[in-house]
Amino acid sequence: GSNVLRMSSGIQIKTKSSAQKSKTCSPESQPKPSAKLNPKTIDPFRAYSQPSSAFAATYARGGIPCRLVHGSVKHKLQWECPPETVPFDPLLLTLAEGLRETKHPYTFVSKEGFKQLLLVEGAAEKVIPLLPRLVPVLKAALAHADDEVFGRGLDALVQLSAVVGPSLNDHLKLLLTNLLKRLMDKKYREEVTVALQKLEHCGGRVS
């Protein structure tokens, strides 16, 4: 209540809230224990108890130097500094983590950011040392139950393969189980087959 008193329009707010109070405490309202079951009372706690994903937290902090720009036809990504000047470690890993996001704008930023970072000149030599850390993150996207997350992971893997070529071969066995699992699913068969052909083309024979 001390906040209420501090506000200049204290009296109005007080009367308003006491009116609301008498309403909720009136005998017609349900007995108090039901308040626990009321989604309104549960939600705020749930929001706090679930740690926001690392990607969302980094994005909120401004740790990802690109932003979504809403266009009338399609969205695009705007970088705060040229992508070629950005440190791949940790940004590429953070963007790869973001592929598992299911909320807008994280989905777009992570997918597009990952793609654009890989397009910068000299990307290969920056990415190759990161592969041991990057591949498990992509594996998590490929193992995700969400179809769109899997699709983003698959696209990212193909883009990565195009950049690093045979360097990816040693790491592919980590990912093949996830790819083969989806290959059994009619819905993905074509998509995964095309991806495997591209991986083979970029990396030489995939055993």
UniProtKB/TrEMBL annotation:
Q: Which InterPro entries match?
A: ARM-like (IPR011989), ARM-type_fold (IPR016024), Parkin_co-regulated_protein (IPR019399)
List the Pfam families: ParcG (PF10274)
- SUPFAM superfamilies in UniProt: ARM repeat
Q: Where is this region: Disordered?
A: 1-42
In which residue ranges is the amino acid composition biased (Polar residues)? 1-32
Against PANTHER family, the record matches this protein to: PACRG-LIKE PROTEIN (PTHR21207:SF1), PARKIN COREGULATED GENE PROTEIN PARK2 COREGULATED (PTHR21207)
Protein name (database record)? PACRL protein
Q: What lineage does the source organism belong to?
A: Eukaryota, Metazoa, Chordata, Craniata, Vertebrata
User: Source gene?
Assistant: Pacrgl
